[in-house]
Amino acid sequence: WVARQLSVLQEDFSIDAVKIGMLGSHEVLNVVVDFLIDVCPAHVVLDPVWRSSSGHELADDLLIRGIREQLLPLVEVATPNHDEARSLVGADFLQWEAWTGSGVKQVLITGGDEATERVEMFLLSPRSRQVFYSERLTGAFHGTGCTLSSALAMQLASGRPMQHAVRNAREYVHHALVHAHYPGRGMAFPGRNKKDEKNLETMSSGTGRKNKKHL
Predict the structure, then answer these.
(1) DSSP class of residue 51?
(2) Structure pTM?
(3) How would you list the strands of the sheet with 213-214, edge to edge?
(4) What angle do CA 32, 34, 35 make, to 5 degrees?
(5) How wide is the angle at C-alpha 93 spanned by C-alphas 76 and 155, nearest 5°?
(6) pLDDT tens-digit profile of 17-33?
(7) Integer CA distances (angstroms), 183 to 142, 147, 180, 187, 190, in order
């Protein structure tokens, strides 16, 4: 079923960027890996998801190992939180040396789940280690990692260099959380609406790349 969906999309679009979130099973992972090898998109963003915002486990040891060994070498940038990064490469995940054998090109360690005064994100690459700070907002939010990685994929597909893409994606997520909505009495959902998406597109203007598609 997943393979059929990807085949239809491949026939219909020229795919420049792929964002990968929850996979759910090792079987789905294999389908995605085959797709990436076949299509070779210019940009692949991986948001590894081990558990839901409410704490439900979404990945077993077999899937985590498959992501580490099969998927990371095909990824331009991964966006794990601290727990996910630790599961992938161990306790030294904030140092690029811990990632050198993984095959991933860059890593953006998110910090929304950490008990720090400000939200800290670490962009690691073979050449640099940058730290980005954001104001920590009060409240419990669902889908922040998905929103960040999707915005980052859009920025990269539009031709933004990684540092600028991260900056713009962070600004978009912050704005979405400021305007979050509560559909019930549970977690808030980022305020992802058409106006916000238009603002993100505006951030990508002037890059000389038009009509690009991302999945």
Answers:
(1) B
(2) 0.83
(3) 129-135, 118-124, 106-109, 77-78, 43-46, 15-20, 213-214
(4) 60
(5) 30
(6) 999 999 999 999 999 99
(7) 11, 17, 10, 8, 11
